[in-house]
Every structure is written in C-alpha cells, then in structure tokens.
Amino acid sequence: MIQCHKYESVGCSVYTVKNLLESNENLQIRLIGKNLGGGVDREIKGIRIIEELDIKKYMVGGELLLTSLKVFEKMNEEMFLFHLEELNKKKISGFIIKRNESIPSCLLDTLFKFCEENHIPVLEISQNQNYFGIIKYILGQIYNKEAANRLYFASMHDIFSGILLNESNLNVVIEKVLILLNKMLDNPVAIYSSDYDCYASSEEEPVSFNIENGLKRYIPEVITKHQYFIQKREYVEYINKMQLFDGRYFYLVITEKNNQLNDIDFAGTEDAILTLQFALMRLSAEEELDKKYQKDLEYRLLAGTLSSEEEDEVANILGLNDTDDLRVVTFRLLPKNKSRRFTSEQLRQTEIVEKELLRDLPKKYTTSNTNQIIYIYKKDEQISKLQFRLKLEELQRKIQSNLDKRNANAEFTIGIGKNVKGYHALKESFTDSKIALEYIHVIRKIIGDEDKSVVDCSKLGFFRMFVKIADKEELLSYVPESLQKLYEFDQQKKGSLIETLECFLNNKQSLKQTSKQMFVHYRTISYRLEKIKEISNMDFDNPAEILAVRNGLIIYRLIETM
C-alpha cells in the first residue's frame, strides 16, 4: 500500500518514482539504469511532455518529464548535455522515454550516463503506450480530483496553444488537434459539417454520422465552457456543437469505442474545442473571401465586363475551353407577393437553395448573386437537350417543394440560355437566361400555364426579338389592326375579350377547353367569340392572321411590364 503525506491546502500527496514503479496499474513502465543512489525516492510533483526546448521556463521543479527525445535528435553531445544540466537544476523527478528508431543511439547513451551520474531515474514505456494515460494516472495519484482536473486542463492548454502558435497551416492545426485528441482519449474523434459530411477525422475511414431522435444533453462534472449531446448508435457518441459565425456550425464527435470517458477527459478537451473553433472560423473566413473573389470573377465573365485576356485567365481557372458547347442556366427566387421586395429572410433562403443545388450541380461552375444562382453547363454528349430540360424541371419541383415546407413564400424559377460555342460567348447565353426569367409572367400568360417555372429561351421564338425593342410605339407597330381594335374596346368597356381570345388560342381554338379553363359557360364563350369577330373582323381560319394576333398578344404583355 502506498504511504503518503497530505498537503491539504493544495490537495497534494507525496508520491515518488518508486510508488509509480510499484503501481498495480497496468502501466507497463520499466526502470533503466544503475547506481541511482536513491533516485527512485524522488518526489513527483507534476508531469510534463517535452515538446519544445525552452520547456524549463514553464517548470516549477519536481516534474516527471515524458519525451521521445525527438526535440533533441539534431543536437551534438555538448548542446544536449547543456539542456540536461538546465533541467537538472529544476530538480526534475525523472524521465519517461519512448524510444524512437530515428533517435541516434549516442543520444540515448549520453542521457543514460548523465542520469546515472546525477541519480536521475529513467523510465521507459513501449511504443504503443499512451502518454496521456500516464499523465491522468499520475495526476490522480498526487492530487485530489478537482486539482487533478484543473492541472490536466492547464497541461492540455499548453499543448493545444503550442499547436496553434507553431503551425501556420490551419488544416494541419485541425489534423494535429484531432490526432492528439485521439491519443488523449484513446477513442476516434471527427468533425462533421451541419449537413453531416465528414470534414476531418482521426480515422482513415470515418463512420457516417447523423443525429437521431432521443438526443440527450450532457454536461460534464468539471469546470468547462462546453456542453455535449449524447446518443447511442453502435457506440456512445459525445457531440459538441461548435458555433462559428453567421449561423454556421460544425459537430465535434467523440465516439466511445475503446475507453469510457471520465471527467478528466472532458477537462482535457476544453482547449481542443477552442483551438478547433478558432481554426475553423479562420478557415471559413478565408474560404468566404476566396469564394467571393471567384464568384466575382465568374459573374464578370458571364456579364461580359472582362477583357478578352481576363476572360482567358478566368476560363483557365474554371477549366473552360473556347471549343466547349456551353449554356448558362439562371436559377432565381421570386417573392410570391409581387408587390414586395425580397426580405433578408428570403435572401437567406437563396443561400439554402444554393446549398441544395450544389448537391446536384458541380460547385466549380456555380456562382450566386443576390437572389439568383447561375450555372455554366458544359454539354454532355450522353444527355439530350430534352433530357437536360427534364432534369432541370425535376430539380425545380424538388427545390420548390422544400421551399414550401419551409414556408419561404418564394417561387423557384429557372431560365435556360441558348447554346453557345466557347466561353467568350457566355454573355449571350446569360442574357437569354435572364430574359426568360424577367418575362416569365408574360410567358405564362402566352402559353396559358401559370405554373410554368422552367423556361428555355430557345423555345421563345419571336418573343426574343420583341424584348429587345424598348420603344412602345415601335412595338405597337407590330400589333395587327384587328387586335388593336379589340384592345381599345376592352380598355373603354373594361371588358375581358382579350383574355378570352388569349385563352381560346392557347387551347387550340377549343370552345370546350376554353370554357373549362375560364370557369365560364360554353354559350358565354361562344357569345364572346362572336363579339370578338364583330369588333375586330378577325378570321380564326387564317393561320397568318392568327400568328400575327398571337405576336400582338405577346407585345401587349411586354408593354404591361414596361
């Protein structure tokens, strides 16, 4: 049984190297060296890992030092002895070493000789032995529970702060923190996005992750700023939601696969979480800047505001060639209440929709601007134009369904630009895709389909020519006289003959279908058509005249939007 004296003021016990060696715990520690002259009776007052040369400035004396000697491996004997002398002045209690094949044998010989001369015990652990298990055990022996937790926290704080200070690559910081956490906890750890995609992991093949029903809140019985959620799937999982900014967050997931977690483990994870949060926030900010810059360049390419040389550079970044068959597809969210402008909430919905679209579209060719998302489509020989449009229609239905479930009060529309050859002509396709969307309400009226949400500019026919005319008088010159008479009559009498005519033509001049669609009796429709003929002298059997009338109806719809 270990005998020790209590220091109630600090919660400490006298604990020696000999006590550690006699421990009945399966620590697999062996003593190296001879002629220690009572060295094993040295008191262990603390424990530290040697990861930097100036560790002595953090020491108070009596520490047991854990090391692989990696930090000393490039030193000559003289310099190594200098550092050993400095550590000896701190009255260290001993070394625990983990041999590394890369460490020169002469370095080990120098260490053993110095320690033997100065009666400093050298202990050895196997390669598969965990530093952190030893640290937790020793702290538990020399301090009360509260003090052990506090000191373990302080020790981990130094380690995680060191990673952040000494490593400029933030992805490497995250990688090192996860590897260290894995060693500390002897359990798999991973970071997942809010969509449950694995961002980083201590395992080569991380398991898929999702949050299931029955999630419980868990607050460790230690001083901590963090709380966890706990769930049981194949193993117990401790989940910490790491909040970043603008509502973004990640999940740190600790899977209790090998060892059950205790309070001291959660004390150790405190600074790990803070370090990960900091690194993720920095990375997210950098990604946002890069994304914004690339979005700006891509949008300027589409808008045609770059020089030819700049277009070449941007196209090179995007992997576009001047021989590619390209089309621009513009996705746009429109407020269902046409009298209102987009709110910040509706603009937020655009961001959500963009994420949904990126599950089906290549991120590289997708950019966004206010309430629209723009996609550059490279022709796939395996997919026909019809198949491509059907795919977009299916995508529209899916996104719209999600918007409705979220009560977003917005409709999702898609405009498809014409096919162009090479990236220098992308502006033309982009313009056409916007025209299709800007006049979607007119198009709906023309074709008699109020639910039409995917418009291919190649299907617009004469409509494309009319939208380029900005002068109302010039547009009216294309309206046949018969239709002008009818329009003037409706204006004077506040009638609905134009609407009836439009519906009649959209339904292939079927009285039955027109009546059904307008919810008006068959005879009423028949009467209105006779009235139309009387006022306009319109000949429904003349294809040329009916074509001119259809174009005229398009023009009137266009004028209404001007």
Give a written overview of the molecule.
By secondary structure, the protein is of the alpha+beta class. It has four domains: 6-143, Udp-n-acetylmuramoylalanyl-d-glutamate--2,6- Diaminopimelate Ligase, Chain: A, domain 1 (3-Layer(aba) Sandwich); 148-286, GAF domain (Beta-Lactamase), CATH 3.30.450; 304-460, Reverse transcriptase/Diguanylate cyclase domain (Alpha-Beta Plaits), CATH 3.30.70; 473-561, PucR C-terminal helix-turn-helix domain (Arc Repressor Mutant, subunit A), CATH 1.10.10.2840. Helices cover 47% and strands 16% of the residues. It has helices at 17-21, 77-89, 105-117, 131-142, 145-166, 170-185, 263-303, 308-318, 344-357, 385-405, 426-438, 440-447, 463-466, 472-476, 481-493, 497-506, 511-518, 522-536, 543-561, and strands at 6-7, 12-13, 30-32, 46-49, 63-67, 94-98, 122-125, 189-193, 198-201, 216-218, 228-232, 236-243, 249-256, 325-335, 366-369, 372-378, 410-416, 420-421, 454-456. Strands 9-8-13-12-11-10 form a six-stranded antiparallel sheet. Strands 14, 15, 16, 17, 18 and 19 form a six-stranded mixed sheet that branches. A hairpin with a 4-residue loop joins β8 (189-193) and β9 (198-201). α6 packs antiparallel against α7. The longest helix has 41 residues, at 263-303. The termini are far apart.
